[in-house]
Amino acid sequence: MPPTGPYASKGGDGERRAAGVSREALVEAMLRACTEVGYERVELDDLLARGGGERADFYRHFADLPDCFAAAYGAETDRICGEILARAAAAAGWRAGLHAGIAYFADFVSSRSPRARVLLLDVHLAGELAEQQRTEVLERLARAVDTAREEAGSAHSPPPLTSLFMVSAIEAAAVSALIREQPQSFIEAATELEQLVVTAYFGD
Questions:
Q1: Which has the minimum average pLDDT: 25-39, 63-77, 151-165, 170-184?
Q2: Are the beta carbons of 97 and 89 closer than 8 angstroms?
Q3: According to the model, what pLDDT value does residue 204 have?
Q4: pLDDT score at 15
Q5: pLDDT of 19 higher than 80
Q6: CA distances (Å), 141 to each of 50, 69, 78, in order?
């Protein structure tokens, strides 16, 4: 039997207040806030305004703002990496897969540059945990490049450049385009970097 009296839930908003705001809502609020104003200007009230809840709700899920940013960065980069790898896997052949993955990332940087700035620039401002996650993202993509090359059966000698170096070079080109506020320029740079990877791995 449901409770009655002055402390009974009225349903809807009352039930949501009792449950508190979710971790996922705060993660999404962090992404939105950073996209709109940049990590350096984000305050806790900005997150609560976008995600709902109270300060107690935030500290139930996160130790501080860098902790929340790391969770947001991890969720968003996992989504983007998943898209890159899925498009690469669906393509016909190693080179087509490389092109599909890089093309998706180039489109993301050029068409969603405010969100790209969060992942590629703000990550360096958000503390050690976020930097560690960035390193893991680069290593994940580098492993995917190496695995694809092995599956393609390249007879070319070991590449003079490591896959991690090449993935990092692609990231650096995107960062440069964003800093110059010319995100569209990354599309052309990505095409050149794609050729660098192919040449290094296949001598093509």
A1: 151-165
A2: yes
A3: 58
A4: 40
A5: no
A6: 32, 21, 11
Burial profile 162-201: b = 16 or more Cβ within 10 angstroms, e = fewer: ebbebbeebbebbbebbeeeebebbbebbeebbeebeebb
Predicted structure pTM score: 0.83
Which H or E run contains 83? helix 65-90
- Mean pLDDT over 39-55 rounds to 91
Q: Which CATH number fits the domain 64-202, given the four candidates 3.30.70, 2.60.40, 1.10.357, 3.90.1200?
A: 1.10.357
Residues in the chain: 204
Lookup result for tokens 């599909």: 100
Which residues lie closer than 8 Å to 37 by C-beta, 6 or more apart?
A: 46
pLDDT of residue 11: 39
Residue type, 83: E
Both tokens assigned to 5? 């009296």
Q: CA-CA distance, 99 to 118, in Å (whole number)? A: 24
**DSSP symbols for 102-119:** HHHHHHHHHHSHHHHHHH
pLDDT classification of 199: cutoffs 50, 70, 90: confident
97 CA to centre of own chain: 20
Could you give the 3-state DSSP secondary structure of residue 153?
Answer: coil
Q: Give strand ranges (E) for 3-158.
A: none
- How confident is the prediction for the chain on average, in pLDDT? 86
Comparing CA positions, the residue from 189, 195, 101, 186 lying closest to residue 142 is 101
